[in-house]
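Posting for a labmate who doesn't have an account.
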Amino acid sequence: MGDEGLEPPPKSTANTGFSETGGAESGAVGARMGLSDPDLAAVVNAWPTLPEATRRQVVAMVQQ
């Protein structure tokens, strides 16, 4: 895998189901996505900074 991460969705005039101004003050991805589980939000927020090997390990654990 290359240096890929969460890509922001294209801008749309349609209702997205969440407020662009809501969420964590830091603008955390998990908060903007409306993730209610704090552990899952932490993984989503950290994902872009995780080493590739760690990402592969997490994906492998989830796919078991």
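Reply:
Got it, the structure tokens are right above this. Residues 36-63 form one domain.
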